[in-house]
Prior knowledge:
By secondary structure, this protein is an alpha/beta fold.
Amino acid sequence: MLKSLLAPAAFLYKMGVTLRHRLFDWGILKSEKFDIPIICIGNITVGGTGKTPMAEMLIAYMSQMHRVALLSRGYGRRTRGYLEVQCDSHYRDVGDEPLQIKLKFPDTLVVVCEKRADAIRRIRAEHPEVDLIIMDDGFQHRYVEPKINVVMIDATRPVQHDRMLPAGTLRDLPEELHRAHYFIVTKCPEHMAPIDRRILRKVLIQVAYQRVYFTRFESFMPQPLYTEEADPEPLAHGREVIALSGIGNPGPFVRSLRERYRVVEEMTLDDHHIYRVRDMHALQALLAKHPGAVIVTTEKDAVKMTNRAKVPDEVRRALYYQPINISFIEDSATDFLQKLEQDVRGN
């Protein structure tokens, strides 16, 4: 019933997106090419598809051969214009994901700017040593024409069965997937049936050179955010935990915790949630309700709670984050990364 009510709005949204693409296709709106290789990591749906773990994987690998810069819009920040992210930046000034990446790769130039073309020109002028730009979430942007488009696809929300916003989660047209060079299908089951892989390949591949890789998120032992205040022993299997998340699709995060621990509470917030005093009070109340439990959150949420003065003592002692990365389940990550590097160097 709700979807039928949302259908007119979804139709109007689709018409608007279609018109915008046609304006680029007709040359009325201009896409700009640059004399530096640009890898764009994007998707066509709302919610978490793993763009940030993919950006981290590419930075880690490409930094061995290149001077890499990461360019992001800095979603949800309270500032505007061009900003270079520092390790001591506030997440509300630069965005939670760019700050997360900067903290992991402090030697990498991380820039936020809503006008990507302007940012690239400034990077070229002020950082001539940079010879590769990784652009986060720019597949729909189109004012910049990247050399390589890497598109993330959520296996739990197949595009062929999805609908446009607000009736579904599509924010762009599936027909635009012809512009992708690589598809990274995330959140796949560990033992994905060959028939399911064939179906997805048939749906996604529209041009002969396109490649599809199937992956899942691999989660690791939760780490204390405040190491000097936490119990030095690793979290024991079966420990009571409070799952805290403010991400686009928290389901896989909570399921991974349930595989190892006893999740006694879930505190699920909106994507890019801004943590306030009332959230700290809510966490204090949950810890009082479950003595001996710890809080496990995501890496993206953890970077928002690094200000010691704003996190109560009992929350600091109980606060852990769960690192994740992307694990390839069919072809190897090395195969993908080496082919990507060949494309970066090729014409």
